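Sample log: Catechol 2,3-dioxygenase-like lactoylglutathione lyase family enzyme.
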Amino acid sequence: MTPRRLLTHLRHVDLAVPDYDKQLEFYSGVWGLTEVAGDTGLSFLAAEGSPEQYVVRLRKAEEKRLDLVAFGAATREDVDALAERLIADDVKLISTPDELGTLGGGYGFRFFDVDGRTVEVSAEVDTREHRRIEEKEAIPVRLSHVVLNSPDLGKTRAWYEKHLAFALSDTLSSPHMGEVMHFMRVNPQHHSLALAKGPHTSLHHISFELRGIDEYMRGTGRLLRAGVHKVWGPGRHMAGDNTFSYFFDPHGNTLEYTTELELLDEDSWHPHVYDFSEPEVTDQWGTANPMSELVAKESFNDPDRGCFVAPPV
């Protein structure tokens, strides 16, 4: 039986970075986020069009790692219900539900997923005063989705379905590689989370939504002119029907500019299995550099050293 859905959306993705100053300059500069708060070696970066207090947190550390992925819940009662479900299923909790001391406050807790990533779920977080992103303003409106590499794709998908009630939207597969990516959702957005087949547990990419096609292209061009390393794009995927331009941040984490991610009628939607060896599946437009093993490997990222190790903050 499918468990009751208690998550509402993706809140933020937190990164630990060795060269903190360089990363902060990149995210708050050319990438287009706004630093809204900070402390020594810790900064909170918001998207101007988003009510979330922040969408990326950077922490200075000796080793690069994914600190955590944070999701929202509607109420503190839902937070408590999820914690009880995870405890009953022997999921390892890092903390129990309580008032949060992070920016925006709220009520939440943290736990490890099946691959050892830290996940946070919270409710009643204060919203941030945000604004309408104007025409031709090529900065992120909001956080779109996060994609995670897993060495056991089926096991990770089953864990997120069983414990967090994620639903499968679509799958990428190929005749010689089998299933390589699952697109998962907790709301009508085609995916808030995707899981990719990789050689090790790591971050695949973080995606940011821009206002529209024109702003997406202007943002892509700004990064190219700034000399930021482009991994893949610009193009338009079939699964999710969204645009894509992938770039590296200064420490080799892959970031995406996107727009027009598909909104589903969940009552009538049936997942597709797309053969990603067909060029139009990876890029409907045919404008991106061709998908290849080299392009795929660039988003394998470094093995995450933070598995089953809770971040210090």
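Observation: The CA atoms of residues 116 and 309 lie 8 Å apart.
Observation: The helical segments are 20-28, 76-88, 153-164, 213-225, 279-282, 293-298.
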